[in-house]
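User: Show me a protein chain along with its predicted structure.
Assistant: Here is one chain, sequence first, then structure tokens.
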Amino acid sequence: MIVPIFTLFEAEFTSEMDYGNPLWDVRVEVTFTSPSGKRHVVEAFWDGGRTWRVRFSPDEIGEWRWATSCSVDDKGLRGRSGSFRCLPYEGDNPLYKHGPIRLSNDRRRLFFSDGTPFFWLADTAWNGVLKAKFEDWERYLGKRSQQGFTVIQFVSTHWRAFPQDENGEKAYTGRERIRINPRFFRRLDKKVEAINRHGLIAAPVLLWALGNVSPGVVLKEEDAIKLARYIVARWGAYQVIWILGGDGNYRGEQAERWRRIGRAVFGDRHDRLVTMHPAGRVWVADEFRDEVWYDFIGYQSGHGDGVDDLSWLVFGPPAREWPKEQPRPVINLEPNYEAHLAYQSRRPFTAYHVRRALYWSLLISPTAGVTYGHHGVWFWAERPEVPADHPHSGVAPPWHEAIESEGARCVEYLRRLFDSVPWWTLYPAQELLTEQPGTLQEPHKFIAASKSEDGSLAVIYTPVGGRIALNAEPLKLPAVARSFDPKMGEWREVGGIFEPEVLELRTSDDGDWALVISAD
């Protein structure tokens, strides 16, 4: 068998007997030995009846060998062996050209394994893998790939906004010694594979942790671990980044529970990155800072539009905590969703609010990436409707309309801007500003500034336009300043005064603008 590097090898095994509850009764592991002698132990998964499967993604060119072990005496599962040959990948899919995502050397960014920078630009399709018809899913992925997205976030099991599928089936049954439903997951496999086929990273939430049907809430710790390990075994050979928990408050006593779950699911060694998705305005980096499996800091600025909500983002933990020891990338996994009703004003978030949250999030921490969301896409609305168990979020438009939204077009422009500069060199640099109109009382005026360490590049975002006064000392001069219209995706000339110590720039209107200053 020939397997191109970083793609997927799969083998099937048939047990000699039936088992009452295979998730608990049998454990099958497969040891893969690379051409250089490195060993990888991968858990196989039960796929219904007497069928087990193992999936593996090789990371070395040459001849691989594999052998199975089993916790029970079953000759169909124990002592099986084989080999395959791994060859170079010859296509144009970036996931296989560049290899799995890892942390950069300074642990502030995400890179492909070959050293190519990876810009996390995710779309939120919590219900997409669960609800979408396959032909619709293909259309959606094609559009998001075209728009410049690089990641798709989704939920892996039934949860508060998707209590069961159209056939009345759930990912598992029971709450103690749960029983896995392989039919549920077989239906999802093809959609997860399609994410990668479109050149996008899959980012599954393993255990949603809010709501009275969500597994991160209702399952006991041992059952939650079993469920998460099953999903990891099933999808771990795809190009994925795991989100262990979704929308939870992982602090206090809950933090220790989730630390134990993370260790049991991922151990000290894992070949796919892992993060947590906490509840809105809940910062959990300190709770997980010492965990080997916790690779980057995910947070949720959420769906409030009050002064406290905006201040939490631009003056709070995301902007303040990133310099701490044990550095990690910092990524906003859930900012304002377009068309979602804001908690305070009860008005839907517009493309402007979405842009503001995205640009702020990218520049208040070392630039690594950000997630976008639309009210009609996260729920995967088939018609105008209020999402299940979200009665105060407003009517969601159909997904096929939402993917063409103004906010999604602005995400495409955002990607264009950051692709034009070495974004992986940017660090927050509020010292560039001699005047900051944004305050704790008026955070909506906050100007976010970042620059490279050598001062050869600066990127600044203003939500209100007008005059921007900068301290030129940290910059490498002479320099060229350009303005970027995030609404239209167009570069404009920027007026200003260039002096040895001060730069005073003016945008052409009082809307939001991005400024790029680069050494001439």
